[in-house]
Amino acid sequence: MEYKLISIAILIAFYGCYFIKMICQKKQGIRTDQIGKDKVGVVKFIEITMKLVAVLVFAANLVGIIIGTSYSPAVVRTIGVLISIIGTIIFITAVYTMRDSFRAGVSKTDKTELITDGIFQISRNPAFLGFDLLYIGILLQFFHWVLCILSVFTIIMYHLQIVCVEEPFLTDTFGNEYLQYRKKVCRYIGRKR
Questions:
Q1: CA dist., res. 122 & res. 89, Å (int)
Q2: Which fold has domain 45-101+115-193?
Q3: Residue (of 123, 33, 47, 46) closest to 87 by Cα position
Q4: 140, 79 contact by CB (below 8 A)
Q5: Treating both helix axes as pointing N-terminal to C-terminal, what angle do 126-141 and 41-67 enclose, rounded to 10 degrees?
Q6: How many degrees, rounded to 5, is the angle at CA 131 between CA 130 and CA 132?
Q7: Could you give the CA distance from residue 123 to residue 86 in angstroms, rounded to a whole number?
Q8: Which of 117, 123, 160, 178 could form a disulfide with 174 if both were Cys (CB 3.0 to 4.6 A apart)?
Q9: pLDDT tens digits, residue range 72-111?
Q10: Residue extents of the structural domains in the chain
């Protein structure tokens, strides 16, 4: 299996979706990238750090793919391809489902909807889940320690973004509607009983 070509195609699909959405929203006067904008304290630190490590892990993914070195057996690499594809499908589905409510980071000035339909019926954070699966899949295909450390740190920062920034923001913005939704759907995947 040609892991390099498949992984490059996956990255193009994943990040292509993100940048196409940004361009489309910009044409509508919507600023997609809200990371660190008008934030202070811990929230700003989390968002800026998250953005920095996301760029670093993307670069490490590219370097890992280009170099192509991996100590993983073929079966692990193939599982990595499947995980990356699943992550990309989840991310694209999340972006599509969010429509014009899609943002990178939170914005207290933009009016957005609380999205609870489609893929959001089985995950409160499918876009983050998509990122996590993409990074895990690439790591399984092109394992090296720098990529491993950056991937784990990025996934931790995404989790902190959800727990420390997004969930409090959604609670403040949507109140009981969000709290009821939170009781039904798991943070990453699954429905609660």
A1: 14
A2: Four Helix Bundle (Hemerythrin (Met), subunit A) (1.20.120)
A3: 123
A4: yes
A5: 30
A6: 90
A7: 14
A8: 178
A9: 899 999 999 999 999 999 999 999 999 988 999 888 888 8
A10: 45-101+115-193
